[in-house]
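Page 37, continued from 36.
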């Protein structure tokens, strides 16, 4: 309020109220009554903010179309300023629940017949559970309740006006409301939340509606299946028995592979469900049980998507050359994961090193002594010579190729400047030193003449 008063004080003297309100809708609280009684003006203002409805004239607050406009622009909150009699208006309330299901908290679920007896519906029929009328005379056919099936005259008259039915108990309204907002089920009468027909309407709109259903229906297979088809995340809310149902699991996993983590034990080893998950993402492969990670077709599907799936394969599959080739073709780093004998395979190691020169460090000794492979690596990055066999680290062509890429790579060659120890041609080092201009930085054991 202080902020509004400050706003009003700053208003220029003589500034028209419509200008003030246009600048800040909250000024309507202090505006002359004529503005708050002007339907067109308030309708326009409620489009700016539905909270302006609080300050509308009482007569206008009975206008359900104005109420609906205000509710649409206030997250449904404006309904709290409307007369409770308007809660009977189905058109208004359907519009409001479309904005927010929380408007149903404002609606009463209580009903009374014309003799002021509290009544409750059973399967759409209202009973007061009395044995006699207001005049004290017993009913001729016994108590008015669903057990006898007898309705007193007062209860019979209750639905002469269908709008008498409280909204939470009104099947027709609840069905229409659920089509607009499945969360309305939360505020439906307990009896309706136990009716399969009603709950199915809700879960077909939003799977999480199953959380508001009765315990019996939460355990119902048909309801659970419809819920899972709508929203895979609802799978974790299901009972263990339902999470062991293949059809329900299939409906969920087709939406998102992460649901495999929630499968009951009986389904974790199901190859059909696993294949659906792996086709979505190779990452699902790591969560499969050991026996499925040994399934070659699943492994191939996963590693074709990403070489990192190779790490999670069963040991025996890491000896499969085709799978190894698929992995190292994507990344030379995969060479570290293959079986030892494949690290010595010229095809596998050769492809890996061509893909990533640093893969040379994972290769078998016979690869590290292959001058052609090592030369290819150092021509990509001179530091690859670090991973070559010791006798290759002092081969002039290899060292020259390495230094041509990165001259500091001489640090990882075999004593590159100590010709008496490594057997390299001293003239080669002398020449390179002079060409590189690094004479002062290198400290050979034998002085280099100029």
């Amino acid at each position: 309020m202080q902020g509004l008063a400050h706003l009003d004080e700053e208003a220029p003297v003589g500034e028209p109220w419509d200008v003030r309100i246009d600048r800040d809708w909250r000024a309507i609280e202090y505006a002359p009554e004529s503005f708050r009684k002007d339907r067109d003006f308030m309708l326009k203002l409620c489009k700016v903010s539905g909270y302006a409805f609080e300050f509308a004239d009482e007569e206008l607050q009975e206008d359900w179309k104005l109420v609906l406009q205000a509710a649409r622009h206030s997250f449904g909150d404006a309904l709290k300023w409307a007369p409770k009699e308007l809660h009977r208006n189905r058109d208004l309330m359907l519009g409001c629940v479309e904005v927010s299901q929380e408007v149903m908290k404002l609606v009463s679920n209580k009903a009374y017949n014309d003799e002021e007896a509290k009544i409750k519906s059973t399967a759409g029929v209202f009973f007061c559970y009395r044995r006699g009328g207001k005049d004290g005379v017993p009913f001729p056919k016994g108590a008015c309740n669903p057990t006898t099936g007898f309705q007193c005259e007062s209860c019979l008259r209750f639905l002469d006006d269908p709008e008498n039915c409280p909204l939470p108990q009104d099947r027709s309204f609840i069905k229409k409301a659920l089509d607009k907002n499945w969360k309305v089920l939360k505020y439906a009468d307990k009896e309706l939340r136990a009716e399969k027909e009603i709950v199915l309407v809700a879960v077909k709109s939003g799977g999480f509606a199953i959380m508001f259903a009765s315990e019996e229906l939460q355990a119902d297979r048909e309801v659970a299946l419809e819920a899972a088809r709508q929203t895979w995340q609802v799978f974790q809310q299901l009972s263990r028995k339902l999470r062991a149902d293949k059809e329900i699991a299939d409906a969920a996993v087709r939406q998102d592979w992460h649901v495999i983590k929630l499968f009951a034990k009986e389904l974790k080893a199901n190859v059909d469900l696993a294949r659906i998950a792996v086709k979505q993402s190779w990452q699902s492969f790591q969560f499969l049980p050991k026996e499925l990670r040994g399934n070659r077709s699943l492994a191939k599907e996963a590693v074709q998507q990403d070489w990192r799936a190779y790490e999670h394969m069963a040991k025996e599959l890491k000896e499969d050359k085709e799978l190894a080739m698929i992995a190292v073709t994507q990344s030379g780093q995969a060479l570290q994961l293959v079986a030892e004998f494949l690290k010595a395979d010229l095809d596998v190691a050769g492809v890996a090193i061509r893909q990533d020169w640093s893969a040379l460090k994972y290769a078998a000794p016979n690869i590290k002594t292959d001058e052609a492979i090592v030369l290819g690596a150092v021509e990509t990055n001179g530091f690859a010579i670090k991973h070559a066999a010791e006798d290759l680290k002092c081969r002039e062509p290899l060292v020259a190729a390495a230094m041509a890429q990165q001259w500091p790579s001489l640090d990882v060659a075999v004593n590159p400047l100590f010709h008496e120890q490594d057997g390299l041609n001293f003239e080669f080092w002398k020449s390179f030193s002079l060409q590189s201009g690094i004479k002062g930085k290198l400290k050979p054991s034998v002085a280099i003449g100029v």
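The longest helix spans residues 426-436. Flag for discussion at group meeting. The two ends are 91 Å apart (CA to CA).
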